[in-house]
Amino acid sequence: MRFAIASFLTHALTAASSFTPPSSLSSACRSFRSSSTMTASTLTDVSTFIDGINTSYEQLHREFELQFWGTKMALSGPQYSTDELTRTKGQMEDFLADEAKLSKTRELLQKVPEDSVEAKTLKMLERTFGCYIMESEEARTLRAEATKIEGGLEAARNTLTLGATIDGKFEEMSSVGLRNKVRVDPDEATRKACYKGLSKIGDFVTENGFVELVKVRNKMAKKLGFLDFYDYKVSNAEGFGKIALFEILDTLEAGTRPIMESARKQFAAEKGGESALDPWNQGFLMSGDIVRRMDPYFPFEKSVEQWGRSFAAMNISYKQATMDLDLLDRKGKYSNGFCHWPQPAWVKPGGTWQPSTTHFTSLADPSAIGSGYTGLTTLMHEAGHAAHFANIQMPSPLFAQERSPTSVAYAELQSMFLDSLVGDADWMAKYAISREGEAIPWDLVAEQIKATHPYKVFALRGMLAVPYFERALYEMPEEDVTAESIKALADKVETDIQGGLSARPLLSVPHILSDEASCYYHGYVLAEMGVHQTREFFLKRDKYITDNPSVGPTLTEAYWKPGNSEPFLSLVDNLTGAPLTGDAWVNELKQSVEDVLKEEKESYDAKIAQCSSGAPDTDVDLDMRIRIVDGDSVLADTAEDGGFLETCKKFEEYVQTRFAKA
Prior knowledge:
The chain is of the alpha/beta class. The protein contains 27 helices and nine strands. Helix content is 60%, strand content 7%.
């Protein structure tokens, strides 16, 4: 598999910055070169133009993001509404889609030296404007129509009552709660009922605008000269099109299919037959009992503290950022964790530093078995995003915004690398601590490895299923796009890619609905390739990752500072010294359980010995103000409560009181 992927990616590394999109956007990606020296007058013109763009965009971006947060979090203020979300998004995108700005950018690019800071900023502006300018009036109209449909669908989805009928009684639960019960509840009938509850999301979305949304998105993309909406999204985000993307994914799919087929046969043989592979059984039979037994070592109320201690030990700094964390699940709240930035980090004229402001959410139910592990993993993931975007040090906020032309894979690599630590034995030895202060025992870690390692390929195939579904969805002839055909397609892709129906039905994946996250999931696959390659780099160079104080500075210099000024592929190559491949990932899947146990036992024992020789730090400094909120309520604030650990203690007490068992 290495050579097929490496061959394409080596070509992509050289082609990404000069990629030529379809005719309507092609001119937006041209490079202009000049060896002239700027006159004082030219420098003034360039600075005035860039400063004006930065100031105006910063304001429009903030207004949209505040609406995004308010509507997704179901805040009570009258200023938050779907109409205002649509309006502010339209204003921001109209600003970025102004052809006069693109024309002026090109004009100035011809006057500045190619290697100047101004040229780098102007080239980024050229790429950004090119992602939004739609020369077709009909495409612009379709874009507005899609935004309106999406807003209506999102508003309807927020009012959907989910749950499951258990023992003859309907029990209301969020999608997160349903998924958690499918994974850990010991009663098969309950798990099956919760799976059916998740499946109802597909019925709802296909009956409330998703069919129309798919059609309108596709019409818009085709008017712009793209193959379809998926091609449009990936071209803008990654710099290469859908066909090139699936050359990578097809190679990974083919290379791991035999591993998946063998694993399914082994799983059925070990777990009592084909019924073990039913979507409501597979996750539980693989590790549900172990998740229940590990639960005491992942108390959710300690998750903020453990995240902070872990990141601080890796010397990760947030550079004076402010962060709002909304961590608890509640009715009406958006059903997926995310991290957005109403204030991007950037270096202002004169070198003044503008720290980021982060809005960060997860969906924890501390009373549910397994919620601590899931909540902490989500926290590490989204905090990884926040660390990345807090450390972008470029001369425009547009280098530090998460939409196109920022690579999806680039953004997800940072968060997925950091959340991967939660599964490492040495990380658990220090941070998986019970309420009584006991570290998770090695025997339990070993049981988890034995139960899950042979079947890690299932997660890979689950990730692949989403982009394969969305590709097929947007390739359907318009007349064939119906509620029934979409649901049938989802079932078909799950069966083709995962070997059977998925415990997380494809139509319950929230990414497919929103414009920002649709045709996005391939980024997780590319990022996971990068995660394994980056882990391999650190383990070869430093021998360890957990509490490694060089991790933060290395990631900051190699991955974080440049923002979207460098292609994802070249960033991975620059750090690891090799083009991106799936080798490290596939090699891990092929590793024997015995070898994994040997390696993990050594790292676990070393960390236990290290922890026993010293007391925990009494101060944790992430260089950030943190407010922990629950909707409209502020639960704790480092600026008011005396510091990070004091804030963690206040949150811990709140959770213990609110979710105390009767």
